[in-house]
Specification:
Layout lengths: L11 E3 L2 E3 L1 H18 L8 E5 L4 H17 L2 E8 L6 H14 L4 E5 H5 L3 H10 L4 H19 L4 E3 L4 H14 L2 H4 L16 E3 L7 H10 L16 H15 L3 H20 L6 E2 L6 E2 L5 H16 L1
Parallel strand pairs: 3-4, 3-6, 4-5, 6-7
Antiparallel strand pairs: 1-2, 8-9
Helix pairs in contact: 1-9, 2-9, 7-10, 7-11
The structure holds iron/sulfur cluster and zinc ion.
Iron/sulfur cluster binds next to helix 6.
Length: 311
């Protein structure tokens, strides 16, 4: 097949649009910069923290965000969380360190071990005993730590590598679990701004699919290990992801359909849930929390209590 825009060999087919390497890279980058501009994801006086893991989405978003920020003289740095997943995170963090070094990007790393007492590898059995899958434990600790560290480092915006597939999955997961108020906090700009200790999270890859993100990383020749976290298969997200992929195969454009339909109702959802009770501060760590003690502190206590007694 030939590129729709020139006669070069096409490397990409997006529902009838064929692009050669150069036109695909342009298409991808323009979409990211358009999303940043249209939704005002980054402003000139922002201090930008990119939540990076070393995976393809985070490397892509880190690269393009740093290009954007450096163009406008906006401060940008990367923050990674080391959950402690041997054979996986240690490798992606090596890729990330090298990438940041090669591209002159400041990198900070915060670990579960230093902040919550132990690695995810060591905590996950205890989590399973308490009916918590590894991704649940990981999600609670990671969200808390990213918010806390980015705030301590002076960030006013937190960039994440969430793509269109992630958003379609999150929306469907919340729908299936009956958590509609959680959907009100999705979108290109995350959250309901219920506490000023929350750093606003934004998603420049919002309108790009997983497949497009993979192709961009490959064509840019970024040195990335495309392996998945070994714990993902145990998660509810993996079930929803696989089902949506099956639907997309028989109905191309279904993922776009889900996200576009969601964006239509998002203003109504935000309006409906805007009076949710404002977050207060956790009595233990001071971070935003819906209750007296935040989920991360509760979980830390639950998972490390016995270990501490043994010391
Ligand atoms: Fe954490 Fe689950 Fe993601 Fe692995 S797949 S990094 S355990 S949330
Ligand atoms: Zn707390």
């Amino acid at each position: 097949m030939e590129c729709t825009k020139c006669k070069e060999k096409a490397v990409y087919n997006g529902q009838g649009q064929y692009f050669c390497k150069n036109h695909f890279l342009n298409y991808f980058e323009n979409k990211v910069f358009k999303t940043i501009n249209k939704y005002e994801l980054i402003k000139e006086d922002d201090v930008v923290c990119v939540a990076a893991s070393g995976g393809k989405d985070s490397i892509n978003v880190l690269y393009l965000t740093s290009v954007f920020c450096k163009r406008y003289g906006i401060k940008v740095f990367a923050l990674a969380i080391d959950e402690g997943i041997q054979g996986y995170r240690d490798r992606t963090l090596d890729d990330l360190r090298k990438f940041c070094n090669d591209h002159n990007i400041e990198l900070h790393i915060a670990s579960f071990k230093e902040n919550f007492g132990d690695s995810l590898d060591n905590l996950k059995d205890k989590g399973l005993e308490n009916n918590k899958k590894p991704c649940t434990v990981c999600g609670i600790f990671r969200r808390t730590l990213i918010n806390r560290k980015s705030r301590e480092l002076g960030a006013t915006k937190l960039i994440t590598g969430h793509n269109l597939d992630d958003e379609a999955q999150s929306f469907m997961m919340n729908l299936l679990l009956g958590n509609m108020s959680h959907n009100a906090a999705l979108g290109p700009i995350t959250g309901l701004n219920l506490n000023d200790k929350f750093i606003t999270r934004v998603k420049p890859l919002y309108f790009l699919t997983e497949k497009e993100s993979r192709l961009y990383a490959l064509l840019k020749d970024f040195k990335i290990d495309f392996a998945e976290c070994p714990n993902i298969e145990m998660s509810f997200r993996a079930i929803v992801r696989d089902e949506i992929n099956v639907i997309e195969n028989t109905l191309p454009g279904a993922k776009n359909g889900i996200v576009n339909a969601f964006l239509e109702i998002l203003p109504t959802l935000k309006e409906y849930y805007k009076h949710n009770k404002p977050f207060k501060s956790c009595k233990k760590c001071g971070d935003p929390s819906a209750n007296d003690i935040c989920n991360a502190c509760k979980l830390e206590e639950e998972l490390t209590h016995d270990n501490k007694k043994d010391l």
